[in-house]
Every structure is written in structure tokens, then in C-alpha cells.
């Protein structure tokens, strides 16, 4: 709210009268005037002092549903990134916006673009990625890989082919597909992990690495999945106009 000329003049007159610190009310707002005549707007402390932090989308849903003291106000749930959701209130008369909830997904630290040894890559693929057809192919290659196979691998610049052991005495020539479709755990666990393309490469020392090859398109899919989850679980609040979900 902008102060009118009359309000400014009235404040000036009152400041001149101030011998000691005092509080005055003008146009429904309170001002503090010190002994020097300086005027300071007093803003009511009616906002939350702390933002609640959670690690799941269900935590966001539960908290939004339980905010009884904010039932008469609009709440905004914003999907800020694949791993971050914020809940905040509307702008008050003083231009402030209350921050109520922040959700930060707990995701593993995955070693993209870094060559790992056979055991490290095996563990990473099984513990940090959802099961996909291409992930299983990579596990088969890595689990049966021999050092001489990597040294003698055929490589056309896109795909690499290696000979792996498939039985006690049998061997099989396996061409590793590129790009490979993998679904790392990189957003909230309550939603589907987006599958995106990676380039898989091997080198001597039985080491291998994966390199992102989708230009970050997975982030848009992940955010859409998070928004869909929140919209589905807050449908009653959304239909009533109490909650607005944005991404």
C-alpha cells in the first residue's frame, strides 16, 4: 500500500512532536517514532518463524492438509526442481510471503562421467538405478567381463562389443547398446524415476562409465511426475480453491 501525501505530512508532523520514542497509528498502520524523529513502520509478526523441512512428497501432503490455521488462505505448492518442492502463502499487506514447507528429496550421489572398476559399477547399477532392460544388459556384461575382452573390444565409436563368459567353457560376443536407457534414483521415491539415455563406455583396467545423453530432458519429466502426484493427493484442497500446485 502506497502512502498518500496526507499520510506523509501527518507522519512528518508527528515526528516533529516526538520528544521520546512513541508508537502512533496512521491509516490502520502502526509506526514507531524515536527521539530523533525517525519513523519506522511496525510490521506485525503474524508469519511463521521457521519453515518445516521434510524429505518426502507425502510429508508435503500431510502438512498441507494439517495447516488448520491457514484454511482460509490460499496456499501455493511449487515444484521447483526434481528434488525440491516449496509450500508458501499469499502476499500479505506488507509484501511478505510466508514460507511454510520445503521438501528436499534424498537421492544417492551417482558417479556420472567417471570411470569405475568392475565391482563399483556393478554395485552402482544395482543400488542406484531402477531395473530396466538395458541396465540388466550392462550388469551381464560387467559381471562376466575379462580384462582381455576390454583390450580386444571392437569399437565403432558408438557401440562397443566384447566377448564375455556365458558358461563354464562357452563364450558369447555381446554388443553393448548405445545409448542405453537407464533410470537412476534422482527424484522423490514416491514417483516414477524417469528413464533417459546414457552413453556407456569401457576402457582397459575393466573400468566403465556412463555419460548423460538426454540434455537434461529427464528433469521436465520428473517435475511433471511430482506435480501429478501432488495434484492427485491434494485434489480436495485444489478443487476447493485452497491449494494451487505449480511447476
Give an overview in words:
The protein is α+β, with helices and mostly antiparallel strands and 247 residues long. The protein is built from seven helices and 14 strands. The protein has helices at 5-17, 57-66, 118-128, 133-143, 147-151, 217-233, 235-239; strands at 22-26, 29-33, 39-42, 52-54, 75-81, 84-91, 97-104, 154-155, 160-165, 171-176, 180-182, 196-203, 207-212, 243-246. The longest helix is centred in the last third of the chain and has 17 residues, at 217-233. The protein is elongated and about 90 Å long. Mean pLDDT is 81; it is low at 149-154 and 166-171.
Distance between the termini: 29 Å
- Measured as a percent range, the helix fraction is 25-40%
Which sequence of strands runs across the widest sheet? 4-7-6-5-14
Shape: elongated
Structure classification: alpha+beta
Number of DSSP E strands: 14
Describe the structure concisely:
29% of the residues lie in helices and 30% in strands. It has helices at 5-17, 57-66, 118-128, 133-143, 147-151, 217-233, 235-239, and strands at 22-26, 29-33, 39-42, 52-54, 75-81, 84-91, 97-104, 154-155, 160-165, 171-176, 180-182, 196-203, 207-212, 243-246.
What characteristics describe this protein?
single chain, 247 residues, alpha+beta, five-stranded mixed beta sheet, three-stranded antiparallel beta sheet, 7 helices, 30% strand
Amino acid at each position: 500500500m502506497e502512502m498518500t501525501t496526507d499520510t506523509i505530512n501527518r507522519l512528518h508532523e508527528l515526528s516533529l512532536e516526538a520528544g521520546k520514542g512513541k508508537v502512533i497509528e496512521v491509516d490502520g498502520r502502526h509506526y514507531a517514532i524515536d527521539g530523533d524523529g525517525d519513523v519506522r513502520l511496525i510490521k506485525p509478526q503474524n508469519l511463521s518463524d521457521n519453515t518445516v523441512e521434510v524429505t518426502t512428497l507425502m510429508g508435503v501432503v500431510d502438512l498441507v492438509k494439517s495447516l488448520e490455521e491457514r484454511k482460509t488462505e490460499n496456499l501455493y505448492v511449487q515444484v521447483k526442481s526434481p528434488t525440491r518442492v516449496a509450500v508458501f502463502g499469499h502476499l500479505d499487506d506488507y509484501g511478505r510471503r510466508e514460507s511454510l514447507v520445503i521438501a528436499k528429496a534424498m537421492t544417492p550421489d551417482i558417479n556420472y562421467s567417471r570411470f569405475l572398476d568392475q565391482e563399483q559399477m556393478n554395485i552402482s547399477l544395482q543400488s542406484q538405478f531402477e531395473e530396466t532392460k538395458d541396465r540388466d544388459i550392462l550388469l551381464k556384461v560387467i559381471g562376466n567381463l575379462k580384462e582381455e575382452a576390454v583390450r580386444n573390444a571392437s569399437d565403432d565409436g558408438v557401440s562397443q562389443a566384447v566377448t564375455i563368459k556365458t558358461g563354464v567353457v562357452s563364450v558369447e560376443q555381446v554388443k553393448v547398446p548405445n545409448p542405453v536407457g537407464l533410470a537412476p534414483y534422482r527424484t522423490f521415491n514416491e514417483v516414477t524415476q524417469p528413464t533417459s539415455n546414457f552413453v556407456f563406455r569401457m576402457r582397459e583396467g575393466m573400468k566403465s562409465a556412463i555419460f548423460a545423453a538426454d540434455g537434461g530432458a529427464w528433469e521436465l519429466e520428473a517435475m511433471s511426475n511430482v506435480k501429478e502426484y501432488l495434484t492427485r493427493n491434494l485434489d480436495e484442497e485444489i478443487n476447493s480453491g485452497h491449494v494451487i500446485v505449480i511447476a
